[in-house]
Amino acid sequence: MITQILFQLTSAAASIGRVNTSSHTVSRQFNAVALGAVAADFTEKFLFTGRPDYLVGLMLFTVLTVRTLLILVFRGIEGSTVRRRVACAAAFVVCTVTSIAGQLYVGGRIEAMTLVPLAGIGLGCLGEASNDMVMRRRCVLGMGCVMAAFGLATEAWGLVFKNLLSDVGATVYSMNKYRDWPLTAVAIWQRRRPAV
Question: Mean pLDDT across the chain, nearest whole number?
Answer without folding.
Answer: 88
